[in-house]
Structures are given as structure tokens and as C-alpha cells.
Design goal:
By secondary structure, the chain is of the alpha+beta class. It has two domains: 53 residues, no CATH class; 71 residues, no CATH class. The protein is 37% helix and 11% strand. The chain has five helices and three strands. A hairpin with a 6-residue loop joins strand 2 and strand 3. It comes from Prunus yedoensis var. nudiflora. It holds the Pfam family Transferase. Keywords: Acyltransferase, Transferase.
Length: 142
């Protein structure tokens, strides 16, 4: 069948989001990863996979803001050569709202984040001084 991608959810109530800081969010995500590894670390059955995605689909269709992340780090995209040389820049084009995809940079020394947020949320990212201390908005790709 190929590789199965693991998915987990972390839920934050609206009242938490107002007071939540980045470290608390990272802690929630780390706990989610650990729970996922403990539950599915030794493999899964087809029934478990189907049940999980059914529950995940129900969670995603609720009347709530969902933000999704996918990491494509450590995939050798920049080593791929279809006969005309290695790519200068690799990007993802997924038409899913509120998604951010992480991918290694071409030189392997950093991580690119592609975001598909609405203008209001993007404005928060583009003006966040803590984030900008570590990141550039729309850097040159070559």
C-alpha cells in the first residue's frame, strides 16, 4: 500500500486561544505526537485506520476554525532529477485553507513554511516580531 501518513489533532477552546502562548501550543502538539506514537507506534490495522479517519473527518467538519500542518522535511525533493537536473526550488500547491507545510530548504540549513491562511491571519504572522526574529516573509527562492 505504501506509506501511511500519521495524523493527529490537538484541540484548543476559544477561551484558551486568547491566553495561549507559543510554548503552550508546542507542548500540546508534543503531547499529541507522543499519544499518537504510543497508540500507533507498533502498526495499525485497516479497521483502526478507517475508524481514525472517520473520527478525523467528523472533527474537521465541525463549525470551528481548523489549522493544519504537514511536515515534508527529510523528504529528498531537492535530490530528485527527472533528466534535466535537480530542481532550483520545490514548493507545494495544495488548495486547503488554514494549512501550513514545512519543507527543508534547498541547502538543507533551514525550513520553508508555506501558508494558506486568510488575509487577517497572515497579517498577524507577517507582523509578529517574535516570529520575524527567526523567519523572513517571502524570501528569495533562488
Amino acid at each position: 500500500m505504501g506509506n501511511l501518513v500519521g495524523v493527529f489533532t490537538v484541540k484548543a477552546e476559544a477561551r484558551e486561544v486568547v491566553d495561549i502562548d507559543v510554548q503552550s501550543l508546542v507542548t500540546k502538539l508534543e503531547e499529541g505526537v507522543e499519544e499518537f506514537k504510543a497508540k500507533y507506534g507498533n502498526g495499525v490495522s485497516g479497521v483502526e485506520v478507517c475508524q481514525f479517519f472517520k473520527e478525523f473527518g467528523n472533527f474537521m467538519t465541525r463549525d470551528a476554525d481548523n489549522y493544519n500542518c504537514s511536515s515534508w522535511c527529510r523528504f529528498p525533493f531537492y535530490e530528485t532529477n527527472f533528466g534535466w537536473g535537480k530542481p532550483l526550488w520545490v514548493c507545494q500547491c495544495i488548495g486547503v485553507k488554514n494549512l501550513f507545510v514545512l519543507m527543508d530548504t534547498r541547502d538543507g540549513d533551514g525550513v520553508e513554511a508555506s501558508l494558506t491562511f486568510n488575509e487577517e491571519v497572515m497579517a498577524v504572522f507577517e507582523t509578529n516580531e517574535n516570529l520575524l526574529a527567526y523567519a523572513s516573509v517571502n524570501p528569495a527562492v533562488i
